UniProtKB/TrEMBL annotation:
Coiled-coil boundaries: 4-31
Family affiliation: Belongs to the YbaB/EbfC family.
Protein name: Nucleoid-associated protein MM236_16725
Assembly notes: Homodimer.
Function, in words: Binds to DNA and alters its conformation. May be involved in regulation of gene expression, nucleoid organization and DNA protection.
Length: 110
């Protein structure tokens, strides 16, 4: 039989730990690049672009479309990378806090 109060306490502990970890995600960063490193983008764990660095050779009006494409590609790569890091952080933060209930994976909730 389940100890309902114990489970509820574990849920509350997990909620606190998740909020603490979410607040720290701003310090987590990931980089994406495109065009063999000609465009580099850094995003944080709140999925915000922190910086964009472009090779000077790209900054000319005739290369505007290529610059846009490379910037979008670098941002998307950085966002994909940060998603993996966020899931790892959240999984680590909640590991062992809840009983092993099939189908309930707190690490994949974010």
């Amino acid at each position: 039989m389940f100890d309902f109060m114990n489970i509820m306490n574990k849920v509350k502990e997990a909620q606190v730990k998740i909020k603490e970890t979410q607040a720290q995600l701003v310090h987590l960063t990931a980089e994406g690049e495109a065009g063999a490193g000609m465009v580099k983008v850094v995003v944080n764990g709140h999925r915000k672009v922190v910086s964009i660095d472009m090779d000077e050779s790209l900054i000319n009006p005739s290369e505007r479309e290529m610059l846009s494409d490379l910037t979008i590609a670098a941002i998307n790569k950085a966002l994909e990378s940060i998603e993996i890091k966020i899931k790892d952080e959240m999984k680590s933060a909640t590991e062992g806090m809840m009983p092993n209930i099939p189908g309930m994976d707190l690490g994949n909730m974010f």
